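Running this now, will post back.
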Amino acid sequence: CMKMKKITNPKWMKRLKLLHLLGAMLLCTGLLGASAAWLAPEPDQQLIAFFTLQFTRNGGILLLATGLIYNLFTGYGFKRLWIVLKWIATVLLIAVSVGLRSSALVLPIQLALLAVIMVLSVYKWQGR
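Update: finished.
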């Protein structure tokens, strides 16, 4: 069984964290931009689609990629419950955002999943 080399260089860890945060910012921008567009008196469907597809999708892909690198090539792994729950919430958020047409009904689901991801990231719940 081949053991994967872990990333231990602080410079590379900073770069990985920066890319992970960039993905989170893109994802949040997409969701919040689409939310703001929905609140307009006459929602602009093209603008909503732009935020959803460009920012949410691309931010989600970057988050997933950097998250996978974190889990496979650092000491984090999939050992902690908060990481597994964060993965589930992230995959659900991206699936809902890309798979369902943005609507006033989908938006609260997206924002709730985003809140779950943020809370898990900050508090790192261990589930004891």
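The chain has a mean pLDDT of 84. More later if anyone needs it.
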